[in-house]
Amino acid sequence: MKTFLAFVKKEFFHILRDRRTLLILFGMPIAQILIFGFALNNEINNAGLVVLNRAGDYESKQLLAKFQNSTYFNLQDPVFTEAAIEQAFKDNRAKVALIIPLDFGKNMQAGNEQLRIIGDATDPNQAQTLVNYAKAIIADYLQQKQNTNTQLPITTAQPRMLFNPELKAVYQFVPGVMGLILLLVSAMMTSLTIAKEKELGTMELLLISPLKPFHIILGKVAPYWVLSFLNAVIIIILGVFVFGMPVNGSVPLLLLVTLIFSFASLALGIFISSKANSQLVAMFLSMFGLLLPTLLLSGFIFPIENMPLPLRIISNIVPARWFIELIKGIMIKGSPLSLLIKPFLVLCFITVVLTIAGIKGIKTRLS
Amino acid sequence: MEVVISTDKLTKKFGDFVATNEITFEVAKGEIFGFLGANGAGKTTAMRMLCGLLKPSYGSASVAGFDIEKQTEQVKQNIGYMSQKFSLYEDLTVKENFRFYGGVYKLKRQVIDQRLNEMLGNLGMLNVENSLVASLPLGWKQKLAFSLAMLHRPKIVFLDEPTGGVDPITRRQFWDLIYEAAHNGVTIFVTTHYMDEAEYCDRVSIMVDGVIKALDTPENLRKQFETDSMDGVFQLLARGTSTK
Amino acid sequence: MQTAISINNISKHYGEIQALKNIGFEVEEGEIFGLIGPDGAGKSSLFRILTTLILADEGEAEVAGLDVKKDYMTIRQRIGYMPGKFSLYQDLTVQENLNFFATIFKTSIQENYHLIKDIYVQLEPFKKRPAGKLSGGMKQKLALCCALIHKPEVLFLDEPTTGVDPVSRKEFWQMLKKLKQEGIAILVSTPYMDEAALCDRIALIQKGEILKIAPPENINQVYKGRLISVKSKKTYELIQALRALPQVASCYAFGEFLNATFKTDVQAIDPILNELKQKHFADLEWHQTQPGIENVFMQLLSQSQADDSSIKAQKR
To answer: Would you say B156 and B28 are in contact if contact means Cβ atoms under 8 Å apart?
Structure first.
């Protein structure tokens, strides 16, 4: 036990004395969560809107006032020809255009308003979103009108977004960034420190000491387990207090899942380090072997449902995928463990497999 | 006697630490000048200043007639440099290495190839021209590195511990190359930890804590310190201070 | 006296390259045994086999009476090892390094202080300095302290003095002499021939093969030919002239003299050199000398190289 503590102490000395490590450990998570939270926001505000108003009647002005009042759109100077609309798109003055036909008010009462919405699909996702916003505003207006003008009851679908009514992107990013950071800190940092000892030649000295190879690995892993857990807590706190993420489910369960996932990542790191004899190789392996698959295949950025079948199959063995699913379930939906049993068991299974692989990779001799 | 290196109170400070402290000496053309000192005595710093890689804090020096501070480019054109740590690109062939360096010194390809052939012929290594450097024994690499440093026909060659770790025969063969170069009028400025090699130099300077403590021919130094080897001289001068 | 290391027919390949070829020798308790040879001779491979870090392809070895393959865990507790390159934590201070190695060997600095005292007092002024900022000689001393801290029975030092200045080297060897008196067996490798003379016995090793094992003072018995020290101001011309003589087997610079090995009888030498003196070298002086370890090593080296090339020639 004393030797183990001495080892952990030494490991902390290394971490605390290397500013670069410290920066990666604590600067990166904070920077990432803030970047993802603030900058990479997929909500759109103040998009330019040009209107070609051929009606110019009371109803059309009422409708435009509604657009004016929404935060999504920013009304530009009106245009008078369709060609001018295209010019507005080219000038980047507008992302969406609305064409109000002659006799808008009359037609509307007949239930045939003939409005046209044109989106600038240079960025297709954005165009889609904006057109949807515009449709929603128009639908809202029409409904209002019909309610006041006619007694006819009409049926419309009332969408309601459960768990994330404001469709906040942060809800998507916080679990993703947590997965990414834990993986990087745990897997990359452990594989790097082990590779560093091999590079320096200190591994030879450790191996010929009475320390069992298993102890060496454990001593290497323990500090990073603590640190990555600390990181996870920081991310959760940032998510809750800066971005208003809810924690609807059980906090102990959340922490337990976090611990399991960082353990799996550490095991991965050990596995990588058994294959890498230099820090450079360890870095490349963790970057391309871990970072990219996690970023692309975990459901963090691209929805798994939209992937082609082969990628969907591969995504099953990406531990971060199950971790993100669990975190979302616990934090946002507040689900109990009984409802999350599948991702939980899969994550546990992957962890066990990785741990075995990691331990198998430990050698009692050089090469 | 033509002087090719001369320094005047050459000094380099790093913060409070004085790495080289007002060193003044001259080296003549065709001389083999041994530059000795314990680890950390300031040899490398002095050598870097003479090669134009480091600006002196004060004092001056001229190498091949050029001021090391103001005429760095001319200095670099006229010197060759070889150290134990960096010699050749391991993943290039011998010829590729020579062509690369020749290109750096703006030599024509025919000139490079002709000199390479000449040098390899002298070393008896004509067949390695297209071998990867990594596949050659250490001793061969060192001889090639020396030839490479001589490729642009410099007036002065700086050798930083050129013979570390090789067997005694290869070490002697390396010194044969040094003698030959000196015989042809090239000035050799060499550092080494082998004290028997210090005996092969025409003159030897011994640096202790940034100061040149002794500078003379090996024979005179032995007489002056009443000992029978350069090792003895070195022990007498450096003892007590190197443990700091 | 007990046998600390016994090696029997050890061989090791790395792919095509044969790093060690049928190596065998024994080292006694309290003996300093030197492995003398250039880089790439196979010294480090042998060290790693004996310190249980790699396995040999063939042959057996015992360290402290234990098999290097079966009993590797026990051996690891009873040996000290200084690897070829500086292998301490550069970002930890002198004291932190020492404490760390003491703890992982389940001991403390106090417990075996008498062993490292002489070395440690020199390090003490810098105990708060990171190991990476020490001078070469100091690093070496710290590494020796760390290797000694658990009072090992056998000490393995792989080129401990390479790149270290002559003064620090001398001090380092004085420490080894003291450790020898404690009964510790020391296997040490070095490329410096002057250090070979300080060992009890030496093995000359080249290309994975041991050329000769003997006490340093006896090693010159195998020297062939008569060794003459020759001197003139015109060193370069003299080397060329001597090498051109048919009676001279080899001629190399050795300190202030040139060492020429004559194949002829002693009586025949003086007339040859007299002639040389009259013709070209007025200041020529010479005397017969005893071959040193380096002379012997060089002769053995050139013989094995000649053997190699004759084998290659036969293959063609």
So the answer is: no
For the record, the structure tokens of B236 come out as: 């007498």
What are the domain boundaries of chain B? 3-238
Q: What integer pLDDT is reported at residue B240 of this predicted model?
A: 47
Which of A17, A18, A209 is facing C76, going by the closest CB pair? Answer: A209
- Chain C: residue whose CA lies nearest to B196: C255
Residues of C in contact with A10 (CB under 8 A): 89, 92, 96, 100
Of B40, B169, B196, the CB nearest to C255: B196
Q: Which of A267, A294, A271 is nearest to A282 (CA)?
A: A271
How does DSSP classify residue A339?
A: G
Of A3, A208, A366, the CB nearest to C106: A3
Helices A279-286 and A251-275: crossing angle in degrees, nearest 10, is: 130
Q: Quick one: C205 and C57 in the same domain?
A: yes
Contact C198, C223 (CB under 8 A): no
Q: Which residues of chain A have pLDDT under 70?
A: 39-43, 111, 113, 147-170, 367
Judged by CB atoms closer than 8 Å, whether chains meet at C96 and A10 is answered as yes
Size of interface B-C (CB pairs under 8 A): 104
pLDDT at A40: 61
The residue with tokens 């018995």 is C221
Question: E strand or H helix at B115, and its extent?
Answer: helix B109-123
Q: Count up the domains in chain C and report the number.
A: 2
At B243 the pLDDT is 39
- pLDDT tens per residue, range A239-272: 888 888 888 889 999 999 999 999 999 888 888 8
- The CATH number for C257's domain is 3.30.70.920
Q: How far apart are CA C25 and CA C5, in angstroms?
A: 8
Inspect the interface and report whether the beta carbons of C86 and A201 lie closer than 8 Å. yes
Render pLDDT for C46-97 as a digit per residue (tens, 0 to 9).
999 999 999 999 999 999 999 999 998 899 889 999 987 778 899 999 999 9
Give the three-state DSSP class for B94: helix
Is there a single domain that holds both residue A211 and residue A308?
Answer: yes
d(CA A42, CA A166): 12
What is the predicted ipTM?
0.76
pLDDT means per 10 residues, chain B with 244 residues, are: 91 90 94 88 88 90 92 90 78 90 89 92 87 85 90 92 81 90 94 87 91 92 88 79 40
Inter-CA distances, A305 with A168, A176, A302, A310, Å = 20, 16, 9, 12
C270 and C183: one domain?
no
Nearest CA distance, A209 vs chain C (angstrom)? 6
The residue type found at A201 is: G
Kind and range of the H or E element at B144? helix B138-149
Answer whether A104 touches C (CB < 8 Å): no
CATH class for domain B3-238? alpha beta
- Range of A229's domain? 2-40+168-361
